[in-house]
Structures are given as C-alpha cells and as structure tokens.
Design a protein that fits this description.
With 136 residues, the protein is mainly α. The chain folds into two domains: 3-73; 78-130, no CATH class. It has helices at 7-18, 23-44, 52-73, 78-98, 102-114, and strands at residues 117-122, 125-130. Strand 1 and strand 2 form a beta hairpin. Helix 1 (7-18) packs antiparallel against helix 2 (23-44). It is elongated.
Length: 136
C-alpha cells in the first residue's frame, strides 16, 4: 500500500484542510483522528506491518497537536488574522505608487505574492485575496 493511499495519509489530508476552518470542519477533523486511531488498533494486531504503525502514530500526534491549537486559539479565518498586516503593506504600496516608485510597488506586490497574497489593482483601489490557506 502506498503512503498516499493509507488511512493515515487520508486522515492527515482531512486535518490539514480543516485547520482554520469552521466548527463543522473541526468536527470532521476529530472524526479523522478517531478513524486514524481505529486504524492504529487494527495495525497493532498485524505483526507483518513494517514501520507503518510508527508513521501513523506520528501523524496522529501531529493531528492532535493541531486540534489542540485550534481549541486554544479558536478557529479563525486566516484573512481576519492576516488582514491588518496585508492592509499595512498595501498602504505602503499605495504610497509608493502615488510617488510613482514603480519598482518599490512591484517589489511589495511580488513579496505579498510570494507569501500567498494576490494583489489586484482596480479602478477602486487595491484588493487582495489569499492564494493559499495552508500553513507554512
């Protein structure tokens, strides 16, 4: 069985997608952890497995840590968390554009893009969206 098709990989994928999402997504993440725990119990009875149980335990631990962080910090939209920082950068970029310092404005846009923030210049001003919500 390949690593990408194991219950551990599927559960890890679900927990990553649930991080920073709604309470329903957190419930799905909890179910993924429980499913992984069931797989561990099944694998512990099979002595022919190689290092798969160890990898699954490491994945389970990582998932539990993420759930703990979600419980401690709450589930927030990453746009709300990053918004003030992005807005400050866009204010600096707007000042560079107003001063016709195009290289500086382009450099700020490129730096934001590298951080997963897409900036669009419109007739109404700058807008931004996150291109990725996956933790670094």
């Amino acid at each position: 069985m390949s690593r990408t098709s194991t219950p551990a990989a599927a559960s890890a994928s679900r927990i990553r997608s649930a991080s920073g999402q709604s309470p329903a997504a957190l419930a799905a993440a909890v179910n993924a952890v429980l499913e992984l725990d069931r797989a561990l119990v099944e694998w512990s009875a099979d002595t022919t497995q190689s290092d798969e149980p160890d990898r699954v335990r490491a994945t389970l631990r990582s998932m539990i840590v993420r759930l703990g962080q979600a419980a401690e910090l709450g589930l927030r939209d990453p746009r709300q968390v990053l918004g003030p920082l992005v807005e400050a950068a866009l204010t600096a970029r707007a000042a560079a554009r107003a001063a016709e310092d195009w290289p500086a404005a382009d450099q700020m846009r490129d730096a934001l893009a590298a951080a997963g923030v897409e900036v669009r210049d419109t007739s109404g001003g700058q807008t931004w969206t996150l291109t990725s919500t996956e933790p670094a």
